[in-house]
Amino acid sequence: MDCANVEVMVRFWSAALGYEVDRRDDDAALLRHPAGAGPKLLLRPGARRGGGPSRLHLDLYAVDAERVIGWLSTLGARRVSRYDDDGERGYVLSDPEGNEFRVMTAGPAGFARPYV
Fold first, then answer.
1. For the chain, what is the mean pLDDT?
2. In angstroms, rounded to a whole number, what is the distance separating the alpha carbons of residues 81 and 1?
3. From the centroid of its chain, how far is CA 38?
4. Which residues constitute the domain of residue 90?
5. What span, in angstroms and rounded, lies between the C-alpha atoms of 77 and 58?
6. Largest CA distance in the chain
7. Pairwise CA distance, residues 73 & 67, whole Å
8. At what angle do helices 6-17 and 65-75 cross, to 10 degrees?
9. Which tens digits make up the pLDDT trace of 21-56?
10. Exposure check for the chain: N or C terminus, fewer CB within 10 A?
11. What is the CATH number of the domain that holds 33?
12. DSSP of 26-73
């Protein structure tokens, strides 16, 4: 993900996802899940082309989206809008640099437990 301030984004996304820094170069950082499972997230300096929205859009699923959104707000996320489409409910938020992502309510039955 291109960032204006890599350090700010490392703090936000590592806390938001529960990830840790796997590798850090002079100006970039690679985040990963502590168990080494799942996707990695590379944060590097760069500007978005055309000043429009980011081409990356994460959908995060939570048992209780409202509670998670409250917590993400303390990390610097901002609520953009409510999302309700075809049975999926949640919110569109933006990270500290304005990249939008969604937090969806999945409920307790909506999760497999791959990291147990």
1. 84
2. 22
3. 14
4. 56-111
5. 13
6. 44
7. 10
8. 150
9. 999 988 999 999 998 877 889 999 986 655 555 667
10. C
11. 3.30.720
12. SS-EEEE-TTS-S--EEEEE---GGG---S---EEEES-HHHHHHHHH
